[in-house]
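Problem statement: downstream parser choked on a complex file, so we are re-checking the raw output for the coenzyme A run. The parser issue turned out to be on our end (a line-ending mismatch), but while we're here, posting the original submission so the record is complete.
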Amino acid sequence: MTAPRLIVPDASLHASWVESFAEWPDPQDHHGDGLLLAGDLDLRVRADFSEWVRRLIEDEVRPRPGLVTATNRWLVDASGYLGSGQLRHHLGTDYLRDRGGHIGYSVRPSARGNGYAHVILQGMLHEGRIRGLGRVMVSCLADNAASAATIRRAGGVLCDEDDQPGLLRFWISLN
Ligand SMILES: CC(C)(COP(=O)(O)OP(=O)(O)OC[C@H]1O[C@@H](n2cnc3c(N)ncnc32)[C@H](O)[C@@H]1OP(=O)(O)O)[C@@H](O)C(=O)NCCC(=O)NCCS
């Protein structure tokens, strides 16, 4: 059994990713997987999926209109795709400053409860250090207990909660 590891998105994981996508009851739960970059692509089609993966990789160096550059990573093990993380390189939009923060992540429903969110967040914090960020903002909804626990375990310090009820905003120092 290979330990889960973070990789650069890889089009050869198409079948596993499609299988994982079918597990999600709510499309709104897809945090940090870069689906925004898919646009009109049909990710069930292999060629479209490959194009999306290309965009995810390019996202690191080429900003798209209205978006900032970001590092996208997938958590995988021998069974395939487990989840994803995204580090937005700076809080360059109102949405990121107000709600989105630097880092988003998600774990496929069938793989939850195994500590994988922690592994992904640690990996994305590492990417932030590599990029020289001194601290990152990570947010979650107040009723998302698993995400709040993940952020707190990583050293997240809760900041203002008042101006946007129901949203918890944390800062994590990378120094
Ligand atoms: C949030 C999410 C990433 C957690 O993934 P996961 O791999 O199941 O989480 P983990 O197994 O690493 O558990 C994380 C922590 O939450 C705790 N936890 C898990 N489920 C919980 C629950 N239902 N209630 C309270 N705590 C819970 C775990 O005990 C763990 O705490 P610890 O690190 O202090 O031990 C996953 O539920 C998900 O993908 N949700 C949809 C997307 C999302 O909400 N992303 C976060 C955006 S802010």
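For whoever reads this later: The CA atoms of residues 3 and 37 lie 29 Å apart.
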